[in-house]
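Reopening: structure tokens for the magnesium ion complex, inputs below.
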Amino acid sequence: MRKNDFLISVVVPCYNEEKNIPLMIDELQKHLRAYRYEVILVDDGSSDDSSDLCERLYGEITEVNYIRFARNFGHQAALQAGITCANGEAVVTIDADLQQPPSVIPAMVKCWLDGHEIVEAIPEYTDSIGWFKKYTSYIFYWVLNKLSDYPVVKKANDFRLIDRKVADEVGRLKENHLYLRGFFSWVGFNKGFVHYDHKKRINGETHYPFYKMVRLALNGITSMSVRPLRLALILGSIVSLIAFAIICWALYLAVFTERTIAGWTSTIVSTLFLAGIQLLVLGIMGEYLGKLFIENKQRPNYIIRDKCIRNTVKDIEHSTSKTTLIEQGV
Ligand code: UDP
Ligand code: MG
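Re-run output (same inputs, fresh job):
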């Protein structure tokens, strides 16, 4: 394929990124000059000027398109919406804050042209994120990969290129609580990798403080695997066995000996221990039950307030096939 034989879609989720969006567009223009491309800015219910900025940039730059959500639905939903509306033969997802440099995209495109249907860009962290985030992220991937049947690429952070075939599968996803990193490990296809230096955020703050990271991690684990339920069962069984042995011992002492257990400590320790285990198991079950409850409502993952996506290859193909059907009298 020659450089102009295909269209590249670049999906950029934006949540309060008014200062970063223009810089991002400049960078994309600089590095994608040699290609035919479209940019899809997905405004995820921003409260700053990002929303108006998307509209303004759409008016000024032919490559820029936008989707605006009715409220904040989260990063994963924004990615899904952008991928679903993208027209390109290859779709790149990249954060708006320039921590993932657009200069890497040509290397990703090359890897795709070499036959990889999913190209993951793997960050090398120097001082771009704090040690706490770095190490908790390592621990999370380690736990996730121990629990999941489909290993997730370590350090993957949603900077990737996917082929049209894969993008179409994202459009078919019905599940709420989407965890795209898990989905891309499950979906199969041929994977390639490029590495890049992860940069510091230029403007603004991360939207993923610790509690949101924990939420994403829990979602990742529970949407990828039911092994925690099995672990809960094993843990419950082991603790029940131990408790049974202690009961037998206590009964033996009470019936056959003069010694009775006079310890408050042993009573309180075992009670708290058992209560703790029970709550843990109940919590794990509750997590899955809550998910079932939400999934059962079958609400969409996001609501689009408005979108402006220019007609490109895909739309032209659609309208051609419609015309053909009309001409044939269908
Ligand atoms: N983002 C979003 N919706 C949200 C939170 C974040 O669309 O609810 C976007 C954000 O604008 C950025 C990307 O997702 O483009 C990654 O967010 P952030 O940089 O805050 O995450 P971090 O890099 O710190 O993990
Ligand atoms: Mg970031």
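Residues 264-297 form the longest helix (34 residues). The pocket of uridine-5'-diphosphate (ligand 1) is lined by residues 13-15, 17, 44, 72, 74-75, 78, 95-97, 99, 206-208 (CB under 6 Å). Marking as resolved unless the reporter disagrees.
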